[in-house]
Write a structure and sequence with these properties.
Elements (H helix, E strand, L loop, with lengths): L10 H10 L4 H19 L2 E4 L1 H16 L11 E5 L27 H8 L3 E6 L11 E2 L3 E2 L1 E2 L2 E5 L5 H8 L5 E6 L5 H7 L2 E4 L19 E6 L2 H12 L14 E4 L9 H14 L4 E2 L4 H27 L5 H11 L3 H21 L5 E5 L12 E4 L2 E4 L9 H4 L5 E5 L8 E6 L4 H13 L20
Parallel strand pairs: 2-3, 2-8, 11-12, 11-13
Antiparallel strand pairs: 1-3, 4-5, 6-7, 8-10, 9-10, 9-16, 13-17, 14-15, 16-17
Helix pairs in contact: 2-3, 4-7, 9-10, 9-11
Length: 459
Amino acid sequence: MSVVTCSRGAALAIAADVRAGRRSAVSVVTGVIADMEIRDTRFNSVTRILGAAAVAQAEEVDRAVAAGKDPGPLAGVPFGVKDLFDVRGEVTTAGSIVLRDNLPATADATVVARLRAAGAVPVATLNMDEFAYGFSTENAHSGTTRNPHDPARLAGGSSGGSAASVAAGMLPFTLGSDTNGSIRVPSSLCGVWGLKPTYGQMPLKGVYPFVASLDVVGPMASTVEDLQAVYSIMAGAPPLALPDVGDVRVARLGGWFASNISPELTAGIDAVMAHLGRDRVIELPEVARARASAFLISAAEGGNLHLPRLRRRAMQYDPATRGRLMAGAMLPAATFVQAQRFRRWFREQVHAALAQADVFIAPATVGVAPRIDQPTITLDGKTVSARANLGIFTQPISLTGLPVLAAPLAGDGLPLGIQLIGRPGGEDRLFAVAGELQRAGLARCQPLDAGYARKDSGC
């Protein structure tokens, strides 16, 4: 069986070729657009192709190269954004027809502007759960995004279009948002690298909000190196100096994070811990309550944000989103306050546990992506909603604001992913561990069967 490699279309490789004049930015961008127009009919990851604007920026990059000017570290690299990032000249819909009549954005979101200044070219907006409220990227307005590894399965959400377009090899990197796992879940189910940075580290100007006290934006990519480079540019910071991985203390999360996961995922985590030569297991307290608190805070903040519009235009919302938001808007204030009090306590407990380790390793989901026609899974012997429980391992961690790097485990089957969880501002240690796992062949962007992707695609 032929497979595609994950490094051939990597962002840094493209930039190196463009900067050296081996490829033109226009040829890269037009090739990517042509590819998306043909192949995304299978996956439905793209909502709009930014054709003319993208080609115009690529021409600027080529003129800079021809004039001997520095075109930027990501010169000519095409990327896509979840459709809640402002892109100048485009209407930001946040996956909803409710916003489609808004005026186009007059400026890029801050992180998009930073990437554009580095030479990267936005070429598409990408599918998502409406207003980022969901884990499956099943959108009543723009359809369901399908997993490139098996189009009968979910891509995960709410940044499903962002993960699927990287997994399909159409784009070398994309931007997503993560409130309760919306970067980590689709990254894991689609077999790509993803990063939820430390809460508050990335500017959110020009990003449509969901839950202000939890929202974070970050990149997805086909290699660790690309992920790290894009992260630094988004953060407006110099490239990270990484510690020696041997100096990073790693522990495995047990208890809640060791239950209900597939045997293949357990074996993958076993292999990671064995390679790193670590055997410490740490169990966090009251994880189920942490997950419930994250759910309540999200519902309350999201419902409050949308309540004025719901009173006027409720029937224009995706029915599933509408129901969740209305339920959240009706939560008693006391419930929200109690959830916030618990959040403070839980965060203190997790920070105390981080005195014993620099990086925690935990599963990202219970197993592989559910089938689109699969409504339920079994947890603790009970039949539960498959979609509602895709965030069972990501939601509790969101409550802490910690940085998390989603790493795709290497394997021949459907993708599986793990979370590398760090201290606040500890992204350097996450990248050190992720890079070691990639070098060791234990984690990598999952290749596709050639029947689903071109042989020269990026992932």
